[in-house]
Amino acid sequence: MTLHRLPSTASIVGRRGLEGVLLVTLRDVATHLGVSTSTVSLVLNERDGGRVRPAVAEQVRAVAAEMGYLPNLAARNLRRGRTATIGLLADGVATVPFGGSMLAGAQTAAWAATWGLAVTSVPRVVVSDRNAIAWATGDGGDLVVKWSGDSSWFGRLDALAQLLLLLADRGVPVAAPVTALDGRPRVVVDGPLGPLSVTVLPHVQGDWLDTTDRDAVRAAGAALAHLHAALADAPAGLVAALPPTRRGASVPLRAHLGTWLAEGDRGLVPGASRRLAALLADLPELDDDVPQLVHGDFRAANVLVRDGEVVAVLDVDDVSVRHRVDDLAAACTYLGTLFTGWAPTPPDAQRALVEGYESVRRLGRAERAWFDALLLWHGITAVPGPDDTAGWAAAVG
């Protein structure tokens, strides 16, 4: 995820690996969500199809990413009978302290040649499957360097980098990529075993959004409205280069909720589901524009604040084509979620977010009616299961 401040190691229970790095386990993720370890394992090993509810699987993936979970590659490779390892031959790397930094140093020459950056240190590198992220320091300040060896994602990654530049140009607080010497925000370079898609980002200093700070929450709501306005201007070619939304923009919102009530509702909060059905029957047609690109994951862990101002909206990787009011309702539902704080957003924080949003863009009459229904729906789908220690069901019950 783009430019997240890492959670304090004191806040996560896990196992320690090389160089004292705290590693998060499947059990940690399961305990945090109140689900079984086997459920988390199925999702993170991409074997959840037809076996785990989509809403639960989405939460597992989000929380695992936020907590910094990385698979035990040695165990996974034993099961699969193969590896996806890129090897670097150098005397002593595996036997001296900070060998990871030496490994990252192998990339510094490429950064200098492509971006004109002199990197002086790489204090941390995290590698997961075919992707990696490195924290670097150089003459350009503190940087975050991300690269991927999965060529099937190169087109999407390039489009996301272009999108960040567009948002920054529109005045949205995002971490815009440091462009290469030829002006590109993301570059494909030769790697040891094939091409690598690489981007360099500034490291943004700030604190995660505190939902008890109502002024900061209002500022976040205003930032979301500005983000929606900028995303509405995204060129059609750029939108087409991004993957389709999870449910597909071609599915009308009313039909989607109706199908969910008939086929996807787990019956965890029956009273709330009955209220949603009643609301849906009387909802007017939406009077906003056609669905557009929206953030898709706007919450405290993706908003950095400094001195009461939003300094960065993070993680545009989940942009999708949906109605703006749907994105606002989802943001109200999940705004309070952090690495170890996956709990419902307090109602007064939800109201503050909407106030901030409407200080920039007022909701239409039909949007207001839909907002209530969508807020209820997102709240119902957030209930993880019968073992709901965080109180999601009570929040919508």
Task: Write a concise synopsis of the structure shown.
The chain has 397 residues and is an alpha+beta fold.
Structural overview:
The protein is an alpha+beta fold and 397 residues long. The chain folds into 3 domains: 9-80, 434 Repressor (Amino-terminal Domain); 108-202, Phosphorylase Kinase, domain 1; 207-396, Aminoglycoside 3'-phosphotransferase, Chain: A, domain 2 (Alpha-Beta Complex). It has 15 helices and 12 strands. It has helices at 26-33, 37-44, 54-67, 73-80, 99-105, 108-115, 154-169, 214-232, 236-241, 253-264, 270-282, 324-334, 347-358, 365-381, 392-396, and strands at 15-16, 22-23, 119-128, 131-138, 141-148, 187-191, 194-202, 207-208, 292-294, 303-306, 309-313, 320-322. It has a 5-stranded antiparallel sheet with strand order 3-4-5-7-6, sandwiched between helices. Strands 8-10-11 form a 3-stranded antiparallel sheet, covered by helices on one side. Helix 11 runs antiparallel to helix 14 and helix 12 (324-334) crosses helix 14. The chain starts with 14 loop residues before the first strand and ends with a helix. Residues 1-23 and 73-106 have low confidence and may be disordered.
Poorly predicted segments: 1-23, 73-106
Structural class: alpha+beta
CATH fold call of the largest domain: Aminoglycoside 3'-phosphotransferase, Chain: A, domain 2
Largest sheet: 5 strands, antiparallel
**What is the architecture of the largest domain at the second tier of CATH?**
Alpha-Beta Complex
Molecular shape: globular
Order of helices and strands: EEHHHHHHEEEHEEEHHHHEEEEHHHH
What is the number of strand segments? 12
How many structural units, i.e. domains? 3
Q: What is the residue-mean pLDDT, rounded to a whole number?
A: 80
Q: Classify the helix fraction into a percent range.
A: 40-55%
For CATH, the homologous superfamily of the largest domain is named as: Aminoglycoside phosphotransferase (APH), C-terminal lobe
- Share of β-strand residues: 15-25%
Number of helices: 15
Strand order of the largest sheet: 3-4-5-7-6
